């Protein structure tokens, strides 16, 4: 019997409801009640309080500047309250809520046990029937179930108290409870049902596949609410999902002959039964034509378990159905194997971000869409960061052949901790048990961690946790936690390294400190780690906000943070550049993710990676790290097809010692294929070199033959003379074409620079001295001020890469910029191929460059090369600008265009174009500035 529909609710923020007997008819009448719909949350239905200065959030705010900085003062008023650190609900409520409705028990249920099931409650629930308290539950991961007893036929009053305050300190930022992501909602969002059960019923069915014997071992727990000796049978049958209606084998029947006593009665809340029970084990043979489940062929079996038992002369009958797949996940050396075949984990986080509702969907269709989008980007796993998804997510993943890493709802850090005897220690075990009981049969459930990034005596506590659950349920791999610790008990290590940027590296991180190449891998990590490594939360590369996205927030959560950032941009006079900033920073983000993923795929024996993330993370100060928005929609600068060229089961790889060449150099690379498909390939691997027009300049065959599963083989070195006499943007393309017509391609941008032939221009003064530049420009000369980047005033950390995570949450780690933007059609870039955004050729110019803060200059001055500031600051920055000073013309450049030009072909070419521009007819600055405006840009010594 479904209980979905109209209920009444009364809010109880001070917790007086139980004392005032709100569960009674008189108490309910005394409370202020209103209509509400379940399933659903209070907040999405506008029940609660408007958000304002007194809102008591769930989640830490690391950057407290919102509460103190004058820039945020207009957003701290009750009338215009807008927080910058996460999406903001239009309604907020934190406390107890009393839901109530009448239920009618049909005559045929009279005398039977009635069980109430509530899917996905947030957080603690307590139930009364009429005036009798039934009990409480507090799971964040599985359904709350209550044995209501033997109800008489007719009408009864059902009361449900839900409290969304912190019940156990699982960590203030855990995605299971925090306003950083899903919001701290109150209600019930899944199925609400009453079921009438027999006195002897099936409580739990566990199915363990056994590929070696082509069979499944089925364990059946039986619950009873009557005492006495019982006899009966358990019948198990299985049907292939793709061959419905016909059992794959004859049903297997096992006798039940046991005393239903309290010894077996522990933990029977799984179906609301609380007395005694029994247990039956049997083996279901699936025959020689057994179909296995994996990401390529997700064959599913539907299992029916039927119980018939007689106790004290009465017959009891119950049926339970479940789904499983013939799947085994194991460790082979330093890699994970599914059904004996090595795989490579390509995952992303799902952090419970659902802006329209503020809570996760409980329907299969919604989860199937998410999985389709993730797979289109070449991924094969979703990691649920410090939360466990609803049943629908597992069902969708089973059907689609997608892997899941599930976690208990714990991020015991930021004040919380495990292993210190706090209540969270017990809660971790409780929730793990419930997760495994509820979802353990799903073949998609391949990896499990206790939660995220713990504090406390984590290694000791979690070593025991891993061993305990691996022994209890070996159907998946276990690791202590996402992040750390890396302990010997782990099946695999889910650790923060290796990656292209580690916390705190700032401008010393690889992409900022080392010239671009594609040879780096993590072989040293594999050699010193005996277990598979699945690197934790890699990427975290930011992009500028897409302000056009704000119109999509039509539900509970509003993008008020974007409204604040848009105001900052407008105040800086740059609101017309919002789309330009989005595109330019997005392309830099995209190429950073490409190198991130390929570095992992290049590494022989590596276990895999988990991105943070494919989608934006709206919390923790606003972390816009996704090529997708929080709705799993593409952003304007990226497509799934483009992303999947470098991320997928089969990816061609080129090991390039460098990307920058001078004309006459030889392009040298090694070919490699990361192939983790269903079977080895009979294929041809080819290469070609193209220009930007698509013309093929050279091509060839690397190898023909079998491409094995894995990524250990180097397929040979290729050398290509670069004989072009002019500067060109080139593209190296590798292709794998199999004999059955399938193909995969990947590509890498290269640049070849000819030696400049333009003579040094006449009439241009070049100096590194600010005062000389101002004096001579004031006198009417044309001046290039090639300033020392170290003399640039301000604290802007300019690097090659975009911002990591976001500057608010990382306490202002450098770089502080999101790449550069410029107009590639500007005459300055004649002869210097560029696409308007940071690309690999800009590394040479941006390395050790300085970013000038131009806020004091006229707003009509737009830099020719403009670093994009983080959205929190929205400063107008420049590394190259032009202006009139006095009677003369001035160009100021804070990129190094002078030193070691014989070894720096990019700087040499850029300098040549810059000098040609300032000495040519197109150089006509339109903005006049005061000499003191220039002086303020630099630190005088």
From TrEMBL:
Enzyme class: hydrolase
Protein EC: 3.2.1.23
Keywords carried by this UniProt record: Glycosidase, Hydrolase
Name of protein: beta-galactosidase
Residues of the Glycoside hydrolase family 2 catalytic domain: 329-539
Glycoside hydrolase family 2 immunoglobulin-like beta-sandwich domain residues: 200-327
SUPFAM superfamilies xrefs: (Trans)glycosidases, beta-Galactosidase/glucuronidase domain, Galactose-binding domain-like
Protein family per UniProt: Belongs to the glycosyl hydrolase 2 family.
Catalysed reactions, as listed in the record: Hydrolysis of terminal non-reducing beta-D-galactose residues in beta-D-galactosides
Keyword field contains Hydrolase: yes
Pfam families: Glyco_hydro_2, Glyco_hydro_2_C, Glyco_hydro_2_N
Provenance organism: Kineococcus mangrovi
All copies of domain Glycosyl hydrolases family 2 sugar binding, residue ranges: 60-197
Record bears the keyword Hydrolase: yes
């Amino acid at each position: 019997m479904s209980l979905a529909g109209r209920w009444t609710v009364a809010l109880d923020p001070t917790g007086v409801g139980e004392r005032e007997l709100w569960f009674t008819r008189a108490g309910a009448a005394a409370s202020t009640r209103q209509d509400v719909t379940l399933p659903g949350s209070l907040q999405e239905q506008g029940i609660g309080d408007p958000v304002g200065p007194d809102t008591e959030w769930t989640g830490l705010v690391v950057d407290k500047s919102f509460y103190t900085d004058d820039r945020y003062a207009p957003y701290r008023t009750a009338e215009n309250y807008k927080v910058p650190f996460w999406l903001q609900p239009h309604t907020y409520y934190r406390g107890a809520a009393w839901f109530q409705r009448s239920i009618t028990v049909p005559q045929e249920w009279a005398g039977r046990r009635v069980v109430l099931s509530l899917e996905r409650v947030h957080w603690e629930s307590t139930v009364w029937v009429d005036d009798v308290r039934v009990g409480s539950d507090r799971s964040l991961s599985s359904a709350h179930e209550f044995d209501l007893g033997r109800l008489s036929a007719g009408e009864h009053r059902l009361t449900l108290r839900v409290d969304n305050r912190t019940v156990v300190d699982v960590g203030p930022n855990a995605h299971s409870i925090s306003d950083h992501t899903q919001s701290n909602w109150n209600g019930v969002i899944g199925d609400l049902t009453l079921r009438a059960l027999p006195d002897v019923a099936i409580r739990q069915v566990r199915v363990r596949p056994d590929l070696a014997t082509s069979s499944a071992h089925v364990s059946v727990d039986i619950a009873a609410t009557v005492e006495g000796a019982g006899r009966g049978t358990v019948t198990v049958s299985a049907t292939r999902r793709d061959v419905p209606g016909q059992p794959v084998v004859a049903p297997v029947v096992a006798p039940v002959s046991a005393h239903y006593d309290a010894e077996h009665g522990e933990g029977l809340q799984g179906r609301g039964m609380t007395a005694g029970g029994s247990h039956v084990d049997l083996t279901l043979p699936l025959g020689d034509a057994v179909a296995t489940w994996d990401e390529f062929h997700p064959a599913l079996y539907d299992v029916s378990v039927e119980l018939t038992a007689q106790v004290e002369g009465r017959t009891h009958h119950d049926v339970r159905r479940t789904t499983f797949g013939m799947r085994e996940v194991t460790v082979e050396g330093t890699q994970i194997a599914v059904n004996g075949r090595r795989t490579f984990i390509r995952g992303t986080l799902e952090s419970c971000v659902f802006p329209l509702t503020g809570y996760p969907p409980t329907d299969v269709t919604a989860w199937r869409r998410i999985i389709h989008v993730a797979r289109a980007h070449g991924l094969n796993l979703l990691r649920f960061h410090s939360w466990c998804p609803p049943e629908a997510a597992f069902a969708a993943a089973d059907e689609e052949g997608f892997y899941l890493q599930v976690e208990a709802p714990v991020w015991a850090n930021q004040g919380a901790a495990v292993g210190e005897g706090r209540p969270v220690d017990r809660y971790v075990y409780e929730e793990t048990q419930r997760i495994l009981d509820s979802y353990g049969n799903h073949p998609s459930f391949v990896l499990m961690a206790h939660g995220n990034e713990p504090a406390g005596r984590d290694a000791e506590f979690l070593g025991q946790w891993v061993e305990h659950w691996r022994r209890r349920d070996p159907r998946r791999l276990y690791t202590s936690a996402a992040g750390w610790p890396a302990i010997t008990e782990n099946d695999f290590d889910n650790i923060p390294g290796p990656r292209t940027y580690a916390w705190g590296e700032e401008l010393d991180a690889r992409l900022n400190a080392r010239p671009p190449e594609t040879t780096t891998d993590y072989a040293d990590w594999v050699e010193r780690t005996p277990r598979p490594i699945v690197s934790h939360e890699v990427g975290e590369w930011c992009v500028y906000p897409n302000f056009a996205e704000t119109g999509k927030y039509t539900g509970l959560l509003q993008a008020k943070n974007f409204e604040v950032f848009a105001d900052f941009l407008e105040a800086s006079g740059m609101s017309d550049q919002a789309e330009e900033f989005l595109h330019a920073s997005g392309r830099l983000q995209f190429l950073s993710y490409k190198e991130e993923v390929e570095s992992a795929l290049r590494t022989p024996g590596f276990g895999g990676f988990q991105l943070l993330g494919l989608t934006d993370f709206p919390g923790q100060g606003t972390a816009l790290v996704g090529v997708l928005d929080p709705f799993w929609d593409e952003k304007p600068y990226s497509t799934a097809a483009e992303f999947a060229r470098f991320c997928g089961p089969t990816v061609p790889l080129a090991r390039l010692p460098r990307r920058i060449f001078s004309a006459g150099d030889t392009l040298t690379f090694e070919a490699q294929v990361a192939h983790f498909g269903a079977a080895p390939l009979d294929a041809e691997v080819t290469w070609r070199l193209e220009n930007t027009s698509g013309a093929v300049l050279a091509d060839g065959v690397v190898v023909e033959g079998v491409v094995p599963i894995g990524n250990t083989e180097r397929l040979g070195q290729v050398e290509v003379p670069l004989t072009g006499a002019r500067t060109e943007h080139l593209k190296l393309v590798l292709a794998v074409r199999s004999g059955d017509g399938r193909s995969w391609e990947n590509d890498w941008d290269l640049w070849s620079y000819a030696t400049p032939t333009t003579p040094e221009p006449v009439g241009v003064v070049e100096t590194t001295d600010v005062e000389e530049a101002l004096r001579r420009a004031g006198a009417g000369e044309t001046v290039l001020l090639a300033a020392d980047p170290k003399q640039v005033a301000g604290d802007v950390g300019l690097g090659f890469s975009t911002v990591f995570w976001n500057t608010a949450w990382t306490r202002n780690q450098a770089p502080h910029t999101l790449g550069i933007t410029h107009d590639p059609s500007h005459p300055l870039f004649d002869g210097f191929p560029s696409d308007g955004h940071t690309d690999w050729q800009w590394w040479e110019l941006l390395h050790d460059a300085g970013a000038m803060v131009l806020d004091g200059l006229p707003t009509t001055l737009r830099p020719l090369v403009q670093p994009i500031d983080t959205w929190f600051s929205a400063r107008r920055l420049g590394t190259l600008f032009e202006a009139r000073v006095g009677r003369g013309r001035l160009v100021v450049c804070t990129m190094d265009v002078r030193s070691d030009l014989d070894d720096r072909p990019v700087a040499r070419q850029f300098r040549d174009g810059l000098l040609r521009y300032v000495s040519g007819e197109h150089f006509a600055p339109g903005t006049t500035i005061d000499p003191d405006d220039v002086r303020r840009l630099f630190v005088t010594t």
